[in-house]
Amino acid sequence: MLLQTVTPITVLGTTVALALFLSLTAHLAARNVLGDVDPRRALYIGPLPAVTAIVGVTYALPEAVVVLVALVLDGAMFAWSYDQPRRLVVGMTVIHAVVTTLLGLVLFSASLLLATMPG
Question: Any stretches that span the bilayer, and where are they (predicted)?
């Protein structure tokens, strides 16, 4: 078994990759609710929930607390970035959570299948 050490570069890389993934799914959620939107606005949404997840894992915080804080920050960033009424912000946040979960599961399952491929 190969053990890997955690370095600041690996933490930074993981955080940036998660922030970009969350920004992509935030853009998909915003497009679903608002129609044609500027994709650069979604770049503001991903970093805070990503940092929340990394801090939660680092300090072994309860998952329910981390998810709740990430969802609140996600909604706050949607409200700030897109300047929409509360009902639309809640809709975008819920859709963002669903799209992120589904796309994450698909990507994880595909990587697991590829990792167990014979040959």
Answer: 6-30, 94-115
Look at residue 4 and tell me if it is in a domain: no
Residue 3 belongs to some domain of the structure:
no
DSSP for 64-110 reads HHHHHHHHHHHHHHHHHHH---HHHHHHHHHHHHHHHHHHHHHHHHH
Q: HSE, CB side, 13 Å, CA atoms: give it for residue 81.
A: 26
Identify whether 64 is part of a domain.
yes
Domain of residue 41: give its range: 9-115
- Please indicate, yes or no, if residue 43 is contained in any of the structural domains: yes
Residues 53-99: pLDDT tens digits? Answer: 999 999 999 999 999 999 999 999 999 999 999 999 999 999 999 99
What total of structural domains would you count in the chain? 1
Between CA 33 and CA 5 the distance in angstroms is 42
Please give the Cα distance from 53 to 43 (Å, whole number).
Answer: 17
